[in-house]
């Protein structure tokens, strides 16, 4: 009679990105060839279960000795490079290193020791200006007292300026007064004072 193996989490790797916050970050974390061979030889299972977390599962049998594991972070969308500040990416949890990769299609390599635990790789987004262009349905433009405001009031904006196109349509333009960490969602509102 064949017994089913019971697996438990031996190691987890989570990717956190400032821009995507709670959304799924468009990356794949894959073991390199040496790590992949180590996992297979020791009966360890590597899989993604939820969101931005990948797991190494084991049956409780101690794996053989190896200096460290390496995982490649591969972006799935080209915009990842535009919104990501790579130099200050860091690791929390199990001690490890994150460094640049020379391989095409691989953004960074995570290097961690062979031990149970969890790794959180934090990736900050680039700082950039927020720009808003507002198209109004009515012909008349608002007065000088209109302002754009971020809900938490962490980002301040310049006064609106009117911009016109060749076909004589108009819109309002404003931008943040300083560079801020880019986020996928920001809550803005108009004020009149």
Present the secondary structure layout:
Blueprint: E1 8-17, E2 27-31, H1 33-41, E3 45-50, E4 53-58, E5 68-75, H2 79-83, E6 90-93, E7 97-100, E8 108-113, E9 117-123, E10 127-128, E11 131-134, E12 147-150, E13 161-164, E14 170-175, E15 180-181, E16 188-191
Parallel strand pairs: 1-9
Antiparallel strand pairs: 1-4, 2-5, 3-4, 5-8, 6-9, 7-8, 10-15, 11-14, 12-16, 13-14
Provide structural commentary.
- The protein has 193 residues and is mainly beta.
- It is 7% helix and 42% strand.
- It has 2 helices and 16 strands.
- A 5-stranded mixed β-sheet has the order 3-4-1-9-6, with no helix packed on it. A 4-stranded antiparallel β-sheet has the order 2-5-8-7.
- A hairpin with a 7-residue loop joins strand 7 (97-100) and strand 8.
- The longest helix has 9 residues, at 33-41.
- The radius of gyration is 24 Å and the shape is elongated.
- The mean pLDDT is 79.
- Strand proportion: 35-45%
Regions with little confidence, pLDDT below 50 for 5+ residues: none
Task: Indicate the overall shape.
Answer: elongated
**Helix content range of the residues, please?**
under 10%
**Largest beta sheet: strand ordering:** 3-4-1-9-6
* Quaternary structure type: single chain
For the terminal residues, how far apart are their CA atoms? 77 Å
**Helix run count:** 2
Structural class determined from secondary elements = mainly beta
Q: How large, in whole angstroms, is the Cα Rg? A: 24 Å
């Amino acid at each position: 009679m064949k017994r089913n193996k019971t697996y438990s989490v031996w190691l987890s790797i989570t990717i956190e990105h400032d821009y995507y916050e709670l959304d799924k970050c468009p990356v794949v974390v894959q073991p390199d060839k040496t790590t992949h061979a180590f996992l297979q030889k020791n009966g360890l299972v590597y899989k993604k279960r939820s969101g931005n977390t990948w797991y190494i599962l084991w049956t409780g049998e101690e794996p053989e000795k190896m200096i460290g594991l390496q995982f490649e972070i591969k972006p799935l969308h080209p915009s990842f490079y535009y919104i990501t500040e790579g130099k200050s990416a860091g690791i929390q949890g199990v001690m490890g290193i994150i460094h640049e990769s020379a391989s095409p299609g691989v953004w960074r390599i995570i290097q961690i020791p062979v031990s149970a635990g969890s790794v959180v790789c934090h990736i900050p987004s680039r700082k950039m200006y927020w720009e808003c262009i507002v198209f109004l349905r009515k012909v008349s433009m608002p007065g000088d007292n209109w302002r754009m405001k971020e809900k938490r009031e962490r980002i301040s904006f310049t006064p609106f300026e009117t911009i016109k196109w060749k076909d004589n349509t108009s819109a309002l333009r404003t931008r943040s007064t300083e560079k801020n960490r880019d986020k996928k969602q920001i809550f803005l509102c108009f004020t009149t004072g």
